[in-house]
Amino acid sequence: MKNVGHKSGGVYPQPGQCKIHDLARRLRRAQQIAKIGYWELSLISDQHFYSEEICDLLNMHSSTPSFNEEIFFRHILEDDIPKLKSALQKARTDAEHLQVVELRVPQNDENSIDHVEAKFIGVADNGSDIIRIEGTLQNVNDRVRALNALNESKISLQKAFEIAKIGSYKYSIKEDKLSLSDEAIKVAELKENEIPKNMQDFLDMLHPDDLEKMLKLPDEINETNESYSEHRIKTRKGYKWLHASRLNVYDEHGNPDSLIGVYQDIDERKKEEIRKSNEARKLEITAELAKVAPWEYNFRQEKFTFSDMFYTLYKTSAEEMGGYEMSYRKYFDTFFIDDPEMPHLREQLLDMFSKKTQQ
Which of 1, 13, 99, 339 could make an S-S bridge to 17, C-beta 3.0–4.6 Å? Predict the structure, then answer.
């Protein structure tokens, strides 16, 4: 190591001193970029310390002669003073745990507030008595804005889920654990003791007619990584229709680890679809019945005359039945179906035709 020398009236530091000076300059620059300040509060004297950055962080005038707790309290919102006092009190007796407090600092503009984070810890002497508190203060405006935006986004998303009646869930395959969001519980109309905790609990809630297709879903998910279904679950008011979407999540080895998904209350829409489908079916049946072929009965000859449509409706043909003409007795013997609720209908009709024929 070279000694300190003189040249042209100047003094040149040793190489190690250059490195230390350069490192200090870089650390100083890093503090400015990260908006971090350093401070100390002595518990045994009035020798407190704070870096220049603290002035900017606390909106404190640079000519402030000293730094102590009262000055600290004076530059933050009054509502935040109690939690800072509490954390400082803990640091006075605890040299192992770092205290972290987020504080609000009023700016010159009355409507403007900066958010700072104070981190500090008690420092003990050789006798384990805490003699000072050392800490940092950092501007966290960007983080707070990001968190606020995220919270607003979550609130908006939650509101949208409530309006659309959508809930989310996660199922851990290895642990056989099912977790439902609050909205999912609400959509399914579940009480606390009714919330499914595993796959069997969920399967027990399904409508029997939907059970088989739901049991096939794991195979479909493994092939496509996602699946969709419409199924009914049992609620206190009866069965409710849900539309579910699922996505498979894999572990680091590529094996299925869990299912995440959402389901939506489609009960009203589905029941309306079923109602319309039933109405359409009724119309189809009515239209089919409207195709009943005209027939004719000759009382003198005591026989019916039918058309091809008549035989089509009875799923037979004129050829199989021996022609288009048929006596009324053969008609009743061949096509008439007795109604248990009207046991005498056949006799009454036969009697009617018989009397008409005699007239």
Answer: 13
